[in-house]
Structures are given as structure tokens and as C-alpha cells.
Protein: Centromere protein M
Amino acid sequence: HLATSLPLPSERDHLRPRIDLIVFMIDIKSKYSLRNVEASLAHVDASFFLGKVCFLVTGVGRVNACSIETNAVCKLGEAYCSPVLFCELELEGIRVVTAQRLLRMLQICAGHIPGVSALSFVPLMRNSDDD
Structure:
């Protein structure tokens, strides 16, 4: 299910399936995109930020067209204890790999992978400078 922002409309709450993973998409070419995600974060229950939220940053293949600093998005991921994935959706191979990663994360968050919990995403949040 897709939503352009949060909160979700309440009139269909009784029909809404359980939410296992929230993926916030940020277009690196649009400051509005980041502001919309930041505003939406206030509507997410704090318990989701332990392995059930990730940030997907698109458009990273065009550094000269960026309106958002990648460092700002990384800080957002750190602040909310959530992984940040960078991708270029216009390249089919990267798009497929990104979709596979998101699907695997969803399977883990939904509890479909025995012995693995959503807290397994913590290593994804570590900065390479921490090693």
C-alpha cells in the first residue's frame, strides 16, 4: 500500500492490513520530499523505529542534481535508528536489487524468516567509520 504522507486517513482503519514495514522514500533531487518525510515521521509510533522503518533515497546517480545532502539523510536514519538505502531507480539492475532488499526486509519484519528479527537491521545502520 502506498501513501503520499502520514497520517493515514482513519475512515478505513478497520479495513487496513497490519503494517509490518514503513519505507519512507526520499527523492534526493527534491527538498520537498525530505520535508514531507520529516513531517510524516511525527505520525509513526515510536515502537516502529526498532527495525520496522527504513529510508529509501532515490536519484543518487545524479550528484549534480541533488537538492539534499546525503549526510542529512544519514543523520535522519541515525536519529530514528533506521537503515538508509540509496538507489537509482532508473537503472534496472539497481532497481531489481533494491526491490529484493526491501522484500527481504519486509519478510523479516512480518516474521516470515524463522530465527531472524527486525532488530537484525541494526548492523545496517552502522557507519563504516565505526569499524
About this structure: The chain has one domain: 19-124. Residues 19-124 form a domain with the Rossmann fold fold (CATH 3.40.50.300).
